[in-house]
């Protein structure tokens, strides 16, 4: 099989091989490559290969780079096996210094408590910008890309921030390692699956509506079928020639119809339920100036300090994180031991 040469694919192959430690020598008909042992083993090639873009790329010992070529597929698999990570630093000429009380009142609802800003200070904080592949599976499936931003300090999901990043002045550089909490990325990824349906609500709305329509249609057809079956079986009992044993048997079968219908309905529910999975395909660590706001909350005689962050990208306060389920929230409850909770964890505090 021959493959039409593509300059962009050739450049991809060259960058891939050079990044993997190969030594290349180019000419007008392609290039030769001397591969490290591990790379030649992974690509299933000799350690010295020629990649041709001439008239006879299928000649013995010459490898082709084209869409569908085995060598290109292996290179792509190697690139996709690791999540590419960038780092950058945001720059702002101005940082908000007041008006935090108003922002907090507009964004948060602290139930059965009152609060006020105690202090604020300029800080540097970290976020992680994730590009994720998602797969929504039901009787059919929908897949796509999703861009999300989380606080790398607290794990809070930051709505809307992903759409604003492109317009922010930035410098690509590596932030200090001390700014990255060990294990936070895993916690964020573990939490994404729990929040995906809410995050993806608009993205999969039409897909979800389609599955719901098909579920209602099939349930209606199923109920109609079992209703007709019941009437037919009851009518058959009116035949005078039936023995008592047959009558008892048919009545027993009629009595089982509701349970059988319920099982079939449950099967349909499982069939049309939507399961969502996501995995990161790219990540960018962001270090940015921000404002740390200390908010004093009063619950009767009890007091608690809550640390909030003003985000200069969204020009809003970042959501808080529930101490029970770790989901982001702006509706804040407190248990008797002053654990910060979301609405779902409010009735029974997981931390107590």
List the helices and strands and how they pair.
Elements (H helix, E strand, L loop, with lengths): L6 H13 L3 E5 L2 E5 L2 H7 L4 E5 L9 E2 L6 H11 L4 E6 L9 H8 L1 E2 L3 E24 L3 E11 L9 H4 L5 E3 L11 H16 L5 H32 L7 H29 L2 E25 L2 E10 L4 E2 L2 E2 L6 E2 L1 E4 L5 E2 L1 H4 L6
Parallel strand pairs: 3-4, 5-10, 6-15
Antiparallel strand pairs: 1-2, 2-3, 5-9, 7-8, 7-10, 10-11, 11-12, 13-14, 15-16
Helix pairs in contact: 7-8
Q: What does it look like?
A:
- There is one protein chain.
- By secondary structure, the protein is an alpha+beta fold.
- About 35% of the residues lie in helices and about 30% in strands.
- The protein contains 9 helices and 16 strands.
- Strands 5, 7, 8, 9, 10, 11 and 12 form a 7-stranded mixed beta sheet that branches.
- The protein starts with 6 loop residues before the first helix and ends in a 6-residue tail after the last helix.
Characteristic terms for this protein:
single chain, 352 residues, alpha+beta, 7-stranded mixed β-sheet, 4-stranded mixed β-sheet, 9 helices
Task: Work out the number of β strands.
Answer: 16
Radius of gyration, in Å, reads 30 Å
Helical coverage, percent range: 25-40%
**Separation of the first and last Cα atoms:** 66 Å
Low-confidence stretches: none
Order of helices and strands: HEEHEEHEHEEEHEHHHEEEEEEEH
Mean pLDDT rating: 87
């Amino acid at each position: 099989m021959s493959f039409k040469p593509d300059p962009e694919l050739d450049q991809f192959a060259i960058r891939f091989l050079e990044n993997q430690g190969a030594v290349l020598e180019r000419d007008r008909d392609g290039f030769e490559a001397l591969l490290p042992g591990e790379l030649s083993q992974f690509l299933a090639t000799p350690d010295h290969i020629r990649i041709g873009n001439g008239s006879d790329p299928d000649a013995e010992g010459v490898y082709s780079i084209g869409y569908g070529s085995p060598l290109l597929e292996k290179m792509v698999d190697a690139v996709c096996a690791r999540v590419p990570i960038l780092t950058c630093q945001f720059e702002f000429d101005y940082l908000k210094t007041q008006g935090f009380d108003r922002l907090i009142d507009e964004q948060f609802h602290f139930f059965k408590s009152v609060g006020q800003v105690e202090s604020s200070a300029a800080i540097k904080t970290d976020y992680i910008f994730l590009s994720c592949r998602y797969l929504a599976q039901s009787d059919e499936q929908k897949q796509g890309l999703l861009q999300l931003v989380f606080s790398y300090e607290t794990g809070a999901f930051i709505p809307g921030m992903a759409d604003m990043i492109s317009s922010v002045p930035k410098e690509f550089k590596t932030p200090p390692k001390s700014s990255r909490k060990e294990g936070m990325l895993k916690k964020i990824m573990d939490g994404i699956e729990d929040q995906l349906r809410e995050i993806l609500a608009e993205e999969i709305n039409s897909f979800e509506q389609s599955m719901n329509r098909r579920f209602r249609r099939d349930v209606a057809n199923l109920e109609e079928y079992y209703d007709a079956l019941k009437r037919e079986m009851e009518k058959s009992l009116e035949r005078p020639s039936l023995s008592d044993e047959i009558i008892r048997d048919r009545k027993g079968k009629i009595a089982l119809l509701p349970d059988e219908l319920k099982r079939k309905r449950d099967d349909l529910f499982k069939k049309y339920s939507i399961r969502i999975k996501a995995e990161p395909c790219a990540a960018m660590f962001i270090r940015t100036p921000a404002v740390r706001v200390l908010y004093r909350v009063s619950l009767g005689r009890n007091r608690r300090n809550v640390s909030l962050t003003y985000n200069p990208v969204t020009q809003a306060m970042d959501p808080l994180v529930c101490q029970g389920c770790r989901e982001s929230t702006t509706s804040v409850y407190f248990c008797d031991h002053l654990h910060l909770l979301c609405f779902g964890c409010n009735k029974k505090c997981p931390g107590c």
